[in-house]
Amino acid sequence: MTMNAPAPQTDTSVLACHECDLLQYAPAVAGQVVCCCRCGCQLRHGSGCRPSTSLALVLAGLLVFVLANVFPVIGLEAGGTRTATTLLGTAWQLSQQQMQPVALLVLLTGVLMPGLELLCLLYLLLPLSLGRAPRGFAHVMRLVRILHPWGMVEVFLLGVLVSLVKLAHMAEVHPGIGLWSFFALILLLAGNASRFDAGQLWERYQTCRAIH
Amino acid sequence: MPRYPLTTAATRGLWTCHGCSLLCRVPVAAADGSCCCPRCGAALHRRKPHGLQYAWAFLIAAVICYIPANLMPIMLTEMLSGTQRDTIMSGVVYLWQSGSWPLALVVFIASVLVPLLKILSLLLLLLTVQWRSRWAPRQRTRLYRLLEVVGPWSMLDIYVVGLLVALVQLQSLATIKAGPGAIAFGAVVVLTMLSAMHFDPRLIWDSIEDDDE
């Protein structure tokens, strides 16, 4: 294995499209979105956002994430009995019925993957916004990249709405605190995803490491 | 004159790191995976390693799971009057007949249309890349981008079944259980997502450049 020096032209103005591999020249201008001229893929985010803004979103996201998983999402009242469930309760009930693969899928895509992604982002952004370089930065960045497509909180929310309508025919349903927390969580996650710029974080990490 | 008179990074000896997206210069005769990214240390590859093989394998597995996912019941409702078995399609029909057609439409799109179109689109992408087709590369790249966005939405039915199972446990009136179809359906969603992740859209454009040379 040999280590290569970064290509001399690979300052930030030479870009290779990651969907069609076209080499193109685009000087970095803050607040300007760059798209590939051949396939139209977005090459550079427009937001020149500081890590502290992302950090605030991640912290709020973690808080709401706990609320969303502790409080019931839907409550049901029929024939004098009340039941209520959280996302974790859903996974547990599925596993009780010998549906462990489905339970695992719900647990991973609804709770573990989004939660772990938020924790990873906290681990990256907290030291960076204080001007320090976190240890194992490359590995955690890679983990975030792998985890991101598997977080399906927004699909779960649509599932909750569909279940609410389905159940409304047969019993009295009560949307819980968990449901409103999930709404907030989706907004925070979407805001975070649109701001997340791996290239910018890498640059910041390298300047932080150079100082210390 | 070639239709796309432009150079790719790979022909200039520049590879994009799959770990951190840094553009790295590699020696002329470098083998796939023999060099490391100077920034994050990941092995460098010209394209996603064995992308096409992985994508085919996951897609074929998804097609196999698609049959039981649609034929076996995903939800069993046990009532005093007997047990009702719902497949994905019968769930949509039930919603349509009970008058909530906007909901029926949402469930139909998410659990019937999206998985089917996803499998067909992946098949189209993989076949055209395999045949080194030069047909509509821009539209095919756009199709791939769309696939990545809609991928997770077919999980909808799994969540709905899970929630109904957790909530409707009224011993006297009705209990709902998840059926074996739910496992197969979940597998279809995961396998098609994996297939799309391993597919490298740059392969669509590679055949065009090879022809131009």
Layout of helices and strands:
The complex is a heterodimer of chains A (212) and B (213).
Chain A: E1 2-3, E2 14-16, E3 23-25, E4 34-35, E5 42-44, H1 51-70, E6 74-78, E7 81-85, H2 87-96, H3 100-129, H4 137-147, H5 153-168, E8 172-175, H6 177-195, H7 198-211
Antiparallel strand pairs in A: 2-3, 4-5, 6-7, 6-8
Helix pairs in contact in A: 1-3, 1-6, 2-3, 3-4, 5-6
Chain B: E1 14-16, E2 23-25, E3 35-36, H1 51-71, E4 75-79, E5 82-86, H2 88-97, H3 101-130, H4 137-150, H5 156-167, E6 169-170, E7 174-178, H6 180-198, H7 202-212
Antiparallel strand pairs in B: 1-2, 4-5, 4-7, 6-7
Assign the CATH topology of the largest domain in chain B.
Butyryl-CoA Dehydrogenase, subunit A, domain 3
Elements of chain A, N to C (H/E): EEEEEHEEHHHHEHH
Q: What is the 3D form of chain B?
A: elongated
> Helix count of chain A?
7
Terminal Cα separation of chain B, in Å?
11 Å
Residue stretches of chain A low in confidence (pLDDT < 50, at least 5 long) are 1-10
| Top CATH class of the largest domain in chain B | Mainly Alpha
Mean pLDDT of chain A: 86
The number of helical elements of chain B comes to 7
Radius of gyration computed on alpha carbons of chain B:
23 Å
The shape of chain A, in one word, is: elongated
Number of strands of chain B: 7
Largest sheet of chain A: 3 strands, antiparallel
